[in-house]
Amino acid sequence: MFKTLALAVFVFASLWLRDAAALEQIPEPVQRIIRTFKIPHGSISMIVHDVAAESPVVSLNPTVPRNPASAIKLLTTFVALDVLGPTYTWATELYALGPINNGVLDGDLVLKGYGDPYLVVEEFWKMLGALRDQGVATINGDLVIDDSHFAVPMLDPGAFDRQPHRLYNVIPSAALVNFKAVEFGFTPAGDGIHVRIRARPELPNLTITNRLSIIKGPCRGYELGITMDIPDPAVADRVVFSGQFPSACRSHTMHRSVLQPASYAFGTFQRLWGHWGGTISGGFREGLAPENGRPLVVWQSRPLGEIIRAVNKWSNNVMTRLLLYSLATAKFDPPVTKDQGIEVLRDYLRQNGLDDTDLHIDNGAGLSRDTRTTAELMTGLLRHAYRSPYMPEFIASMSINGLDGTTRRRFRGRPEAGHMHLKTGRLDGVSAIVGYVFATSGKTYSIVLLINHNNVHKGPGIEIQNALLKWVYRQ
Predict the structure, then answer these.
(1) Do 102 and 196 sit in the same domain of this protein?
(2) What integer pLDDT is reported at residue 406 of this predicted model?
(3) In angstroms, rounded to a whole number, what is the distance separating the alpha carbons of residues 328 and 340?
(4) Of 285, 301, 317, which marks where a domain is finished?
(5) Please, which residues have CB within 8 angstroms of residue 221's CB and are 6 or more apart in sequence?
(6) Taking the CB of residue 401, how many other CB atoms lie within 10 A of it?
(7) What is the CATH number of the domain that holds 448?
(8) pLDDT for the residue 12
(9) Residues 224, 249: contact at Cβ < 8 Å?
(10) Same domain, 165 and 192
(11) Which of 52, 66, 237, 387 has the highest local Cβ count within 10 Å?
């Protein structure tokens, strides 16, 4: 019994000394903020590591699994960058299901998607220009949408936070066009009574009902008093705006997801095909491209090395989710699944000596209450990536503090501006920042800070982040 008690005391003392040593490593300016907001050290994981050194400068709770929120995108994007390569592109194919004579396609046109994460309006417009160059002007048939490259289950886009029409909740599709997004703009009509609404892009299959009116008052309030309702969420082809718009407001913008992937693609096609002088007589339906057919047009996306800039700088969720599906194609035949993408990701980590034991990936984007990783794994990833030949593309994909992306306001106009490449993460109760700091000494540090605690997302998290970033910059 004495030996057992002595062993217990020894273990307790060892753990206490280890934890005390870890706490001593935390810079005093950071400790001061932590104490001010009364954040328990047990809720914080932190590693600061000179990329050229073997041991970290600061290490606190490195192996505790925590929710990193959107900071997990760095894991998904770097693995995709290294597995698929920076010049990897996605094809979107157009097939004619009938003869073409004198500019008339007598039959359907098939659009087959392969998961292009950035098939935005501009790219779609250029693709239709390439179709016009093939001599097609009139389509006597339907637009057939083939999204069979990915096996995406039926998912509720509002499951995460009951906001199904927010852009961050868009469900992936192999034939996703422009993130299924519409920018709604609101301006006073000038008569003191009505409000004008414009939509970009203007989709002919989307109905907008305007029940807005002007109310005299200051320009303030959530969404400036505008409420959006979609009466039939299953098709989402009609939006109703109601409420009272303050008279002091000059304009307001709201970005929302509408329609379904196939109907949105068709509406975009109708609008942009008309820009090229083209017409289509039919509607749309979902179907398959001919198995051994020859496409009229093969439109290639922008390269992956460029795509990940939009992902990481602006934290685009659906683009990241599409990357995870695309990863699966490195090992599996289509239709590929999300779980196959996760398998490829885990294989990569293990092959490169990165411990994935405590990693839990939900969708690769961090829009999940269940995602978990450790500061140790994220630090390992940053150090591994820094030694990679694709390090420049990876670092360039991150937000540059004070200049662009999600950290464009951090230290703006101060000496620290432009010296950090970072990825942020934020959910209720989660605050995270991961990336690289180029210090005044000329050294480069990787930094990982993961905090999971009630209300840390409301301000304390950013205060702690900024204190740590400033301290590292001065090293």
Answers:
(1) yes
(2) 97
(3) 5
(4) 301
(5) 246
(6) 28
(7) 3.40.710.10
(8) 43
(9) yes
(10) yes
(11) 66
| Statement: residue 10 has pLDDT above 80 | no
Contacts of 286 (CB under 8 A, 6+ apart): 144, 145, 146, 147, 262
- 3-class DSSP state of 223: helix
Do the Cβ atoms of 84 and 304 come closer than 8 Å? yes
pLDDT, residue 23, reads 79
357 residue type, one letter:
T
The per-residue DSSP string of 100-133 comes to: EETTEE-SEEEEEE---TT--HHHHHHHHHHHHH
Based on the fold, state whether residues 163 and 275 are members of the same structural domain. yes
Integer Cα distance of 280 and 138 in angstroms: 6
Locate 236 and state its tokens.
């989402």
Q: Is the pLDDT of residue 2 over 70?
A: no
Strands (E) located in 258-368: 279-280, 284-286, 297-300
**Sign of the dihedral through C-alpha 345, 347, 352, 353:** positive
Query: Which residues have a Cβ under 8 Å from the Cβ of 21 and sit 6 or more positions away?
Result: none
For the cut 70, the answer to whether the pLDDT of residue 57 exceeds it is yes
**CA triple 194-198-202, angle to 5 deg:** 145
Q: What is the mean pLDDT of residues 285-310?
A: 97
Last residue of a domain, one of 281, 301, 321: 301
Give the strands of the sheet with 399-400, arranged side by side.
58-60, 44-50, 444-452, 430-438, 420-427, 399-400
Please, what is the average pLDDT of the chain? 95
Range of the domain at 319: 27-86+305-473
Torsion 118-122-125-127 (CA) sign: negative
d(CA 243, CA 20): 56
Same-domain status, 416 and 311: yes
pLDDT tens digits along 392-447: 999 999 999 999 999 999 999 999 999 999 999 999 999 999 999 999 999 999 99
Q: Confidence class of residue 24 from pLDDT cuts 50, 70 and 90?
A: confident
